[in-house]
Write a structure and sequence with these properties.
By secondary structure, this protein is α+β, with helices and mostly antiparallel strands. The protein contains eleven helices and 13 strands.
Length: 472
């Protein structure tokens, strides 16, 4: 080996050693930087002959499959967290089936009040107690309906916010694609851009699930899990949505979750919010409205004093039941003013009927017993409510509360499972991409030794040259 070849090798060795030191320093400096993937350097030959110089090939340590699994788990966690975020306040208001303030408990309390009134129908105190219990039930149902509407508004706002965050992320991916195309293939040039891409995709993963594909030009293509293209090169679609129905569209293509024949998303926070707006909240609202309908119709049919079109004990904001005004009925449920003394009514109508014009005999129980029987008969239920085809009012109220509380319980169980999976994938991903300070410090010791060895070679070569020159 010639002196010049040895000199080239030693000099390139110093250059490689300097590059390795820079990589280690960068790794240590970015150990806590989100989205940063560890850089490693591999020493390679810079030529094809014996004694050629050496070079440093930089490698960004990533595992795309593991990163994809992590983002999928994050999307599942994001979807499972939505019911708790949206329904927490409403379900606290609704209460458990046995809670004193729940509609189910208030309904049972009113039924017990009617039983007491049946034992002494002429007692003004018993009449007043029954009315107070009826008002307690109405208040619990209208409060639940109002709070549910607030939850729907919250879900709609979160839905719009998620769409905005997703569109920003998709635009950022497209912009990074344009920069990656210009940066070339060198990891030294693209490493920072790839870290930005990783952070963008991780943030996007909590909002929606997606698939990725790296193209030959270095850009990343994004699709929904159903196959709808989201980003291609420097172009990104814009997602739009309807926060009343939960519909989601990508440049006119329906990407709403669970649409027959759709090519949409299936998990993520946006999917969870879409399900809340399209299915869960409307069904909960219908269940409340069905309970209100059962009470209004039941007590209208049981009231022997009413003419067609007259309102019964329970009313739709003072009016009789109107089938075309079912939506939101629970929020309009009210006691008939004709039985409310503070509105000019009379308590004795609980005994004699809402349309009675004069008090009947104090001991008559015919009308009260008819009211009591309302709770004994099974009534038809809208199948869309998801609580069966028929049920007695008390059973339906208990099922309603239990069913709605179970939405949160089931979601919490899914969230816990997703959290476990996410933690596992993140730990595995960190082992591949993360920076271990102890390992990097050990590398510095190796680099120091390599630097010393190359310096010694250069020093020896310098001495040899000096000796040769002095001998001339």
């Amino acid at each position: 080996m010639s002196i010049s070849s040895a000199y080239n090798i030693a000099r390139s060795g110093l250059r490689v050693t300097e590059g390795r030191a820079d990589l280690v320093a960068g790794n240590i400096a970015n150990a806590q930087t989100p989205g940063y993937a560890r850089r490693d350097g591999v020493q390679t030959s810079a030529g094809s002959g014996q004694g050629d110089a050496v070079d440093l090939r930089v490698m960004r340590q990533v595992n795309d499959r593991l990163a994809g699994m992590t983002r999928t788990a994050r999307a599942e966690q994001g979807a499972a967290a939505v019911p708790a975020d949206v329904l927490n306040g409403y379900l606290l208001t609704l209460g458990e089936p046995g809670d004193e303030a729940s509609p189910a408990a208030r309904l049972a309390n009113f039924q017990a009040g009617l039983d007491l009134l049946g034992n002494n129908p002429g007692d003004v105190n018993a009449q007043g107690d029954a009315l107070a219990r009826a008002e307690g039930f109405v208040n619990s149902l209208t409060t639940a309906s109002r709070t549910l509407e607030q939850s729907r508004a919250q879900a709609a706002e979160s839905f719009d916010r998620s769409l905005g965050e997703i569109n920003t992320a998709l635009s950022n991916v497209a912009a990074l694609n344009a920069q990656l195309r210009q940066a070339g293939d060198s990891p030294r040039d693209t490493g920072g851009l790839m870290d930005q891409m990783s952070r963008t995709l991780d943030a996007l993963g909590s909002q929606m699930d997606f698939k990725t594909r790296w193209e030959a030009d270095g850009s990343l293509t994004l699709h929904t899990t159903g196959g709808t293209e989201l980003v291609s090169g420097a172009d990104a679609v814009r997602l739009t949505g309807d926060n009343r129905t939960g519909g989601i569209f990508a440049d006119g293509n329906d990407v709403t979750p669970d649409r027959p024949g759709g090519r949409g998303i299936s998990s993520g926070r946006l999917a969870g919010l879409s399900e809340m707006l399209s299915t869960v909240l409307p069904q909960m609202r219908l269940q409340l409205d069905e309970l209100a309908r059962g009470m209004i119709q039941g007590f209208e049919a049981a009231d022997l004093s009413l003419a067609p079109g007259d309102p019964g004990l329970f009313t739709d904001a003072g009016a009789a039941f109107d089938p075309v005004r079912l939506d939101g009925l629970a929020g309009r449920l009210a006691i008939n003013d004709r039985v409310r003394p503070d509105s000019g009514g009379a308590l004795w109508r609980l005994r004699d009927g809402m349309a009675a014009t004069a008090p009947g005999e104090a001991g008559t129980t015919t009308q009260v017993n008819a009211f009591i029987k309302v709770f004994d008969d099974a009534r038809g239920i809208d199948p869309r409510a998801g609580l069966g085809a028929t049920a007695r009012l008390g059973d339906f109220a208990a099922s309603l509360v239990g069913h709605q509380q179970n939405v949160r319980v089931s979601a919490d169980a899914r969230a816990d499972s997703a959290s476990v999976s996410l933690a596992t994938f993140e730990d595995n991903r960190s082992a591949v991409e993360g920076v271990n300070i102890d390992t990097e410090l050990q590398k510095l010791l190796e680099i120091e030794q390599a630097y010393g060895a190359n310096s010694q070679v250069l020093s020896s070569l310098s001495s040899m040259i000096d000796t040769l020159l002095s001998s001339v």
